[in-house]
Every structure is written in C-alpha cells, then in structure tokens.
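Thread: Newbie trying to understand structure tokens

Hi all, I'm a second-year student working on a class project, and my supervisor (Dr. K.) asked me to get a predicted structure for one chain before our next meeting. I've only ever worked with sequences, so writing a 3D structure as a token string is new to me. If someone could post the tokens and maybe explain what I'm looking at, I'd be very grateful. Here's the chain:
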Amino acid sequence: MVRFPCLSRAVPSALAVAGMAVVCNVAHAQETIKIDGSSTVFPITEAVAEDFQQSKKGKIRVTVGISGTGGGFKKFCRGETDMSNASRPILAREMEECKRAGIQYVELPVAYDALTVVMNPKNDWIKALTVADLKKMWEPAAQGKVTKWKQVNSAWPDSSLKLFGPGADSGTFDYFTEAVNGRAKSSRGDFTASEDDNVLVQGIARDVNGLGYFGYAYYYENRDKLKAVPIVNPNTGKAVLPGADTVMDGSYQPLARPIFIYINSKSLDRPEIREFVEFYMKNAEALVSEVKYVPLPAKAYAYNLEQASKKVVGSKFGGENKVGLTIEQLMKLESKL
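---
Reply by user tm_fold:
Sure, no problem. This is what the structure looks like when written as tokens:
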C-alpha cells in the first residue's frame, strides 16, 4: 500500500496539491533533507523517508514535495532541493538550466512504473485500447472536436468523452504524450488536469464517461473504484494489462517506464544525504514492491550505491525520453550489467 509519512499508510489525499511538502513534524530535527518532484515517484521516496526518519529517531528530517517532475527540476536546478524525484529522465533544457546554475547531479533509476490508463468501472464498452485509439483521444487535433466516445470508435456510445490527466509539469504527461502522440507535451488541452493524482482518481471514479492516466501505484490503491484498461502491444498485437509481471517480461508496451531520483552532487558531501541514499538503495527493493511499483534487479541498486559514492555525475539518457525501454535494456544502458 502507498504510504503517507507520520499519518497513515495511504496515498496522500487531494490536499497534497502541487508543490506541497510532506513533512514529519519532529521538533528536535537537526538536519533536513529536501526532496521534491514527481508525484509518481513520491510513494517510493515517501516510504523510504518515513522508515529512514524512524531509524534516525528524529535526528534527521526529510521533506518530500509533489510539484511534478518538471516543477521539481526547476527547484533542483536552482539549488533549492537536495534530491529530485522524476518519472522521466532529465531533459536537455533542464540539463542546461542546472549547468548554468553550477548544479551537477547523480542520476539513479529506482524502479519501473506501468503507466496505467484507467476508466470508470461502469464502462462496459472498452475491452482494450490501441495506441492509435489513445492518439485519437489525446492528440492536439482532437481538441474541441473529438468530444464523444463514438468519434473514437463507431461501436462506442454517443456520450461525452471526459478526459483526466496530469498537468504540464508532470513527467507522466511528458512520457504519455511522447509515447502516444510522438512528441512530449503534444496534447489536447481541453481535459481536466492536475498534478495531484488523487484529483484524477476521484474525477474518473465519479463519471462513467471518465478516462485518464497516471502511475500504477495510484491505480492499485484505488482499484476498487477504477478499472485498468488493457493496452494493445504494438509489436505483438496482444492486449496487455499493466502489472509487475507484464513490466518484467517486457510485454506491457509502450507505457512501461523507468523512474528516477536525482541527487545534487554537492549535497552528497553531507553525511545525512549519503546515509539517506544508502538507506534508499538498501531498502528500495522491498519498499518499491510495497507501494506496487516494479523493483529493479538487486545488482542495479548496488550499482547505484557505487555511482553515488563515486559521485558519477550526468545522465545516460542524453536529455531525452527513451519510450518503450525494457528493464533489460535499461540495465544495459546503465552499466552493461
């Protein structure tokens, strides 16, 4: 189950709006680790932060914000945070922003997400969606024009198409639009957008005509009120549901993706940051599974620790997304493990 620090083991509520920092209220905290960024990665880092703070008996405070991958990188590249959660690799323009500010970073993949398309459970007409179907709904040309389900598929009802999705600062928005429409941020704008995935959950759960997308952990936590849509693999033609097994075997494509943390290399000079990163990597496999993402192989976390200890800076992604990357391909890209 996705966890919320100091309060419960639940996904943060709709009060966890973009930019909000989740903080354990420990009056005697001596050191603070500041983290912001992706709402998709938030459940993992939040779980790590909660357990780490407990292990330190309040001597170290960890704050985890939810301003989206893009919003997080803006703060990170201004030197306002020690770490940034990211549901996609750092982009070229963000790399340049960090460079201008003298910020160097260590890039660590921490898990895989099955980016999940969800619908209202009363929707009885969708059995599966192809990438072409998704494009008909979400491409920029659909704005103000594709407003009924039957415009996507003539066999579907003549009822309003209600779309929900992450906002423009979201790495999930970037990844989905590139995977579906061929270019990041290329999307119709007339949909209900929010950086808080719980707002999207509630909107789709209340409307039989609702459809949207977000990270798998938020679907899993709300699977009693949402239905995941099988996505047709463009290579095999088979409809595949998101999940750990289909991410690991590479069949859930093109919406399976690696998710990351980025660490300011100067922050790694501080012992509490090094301790936190070590704790993160040593506990990632268990906590990633707990919040319902897909852990990387154990050797990947060991490699991450080595990269952090040596302060190996930069990105292996060249400032762009790599859509459809499998775990095996990621491992080869990372270190030829």
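A couple of things are worth pointing out once you decode it. The chain is about 35% helix and 20% strand. Confidence is low (pLDDT under 50) at residues 4-11, 13-29. Feel free to ask follow-ups in this thread.
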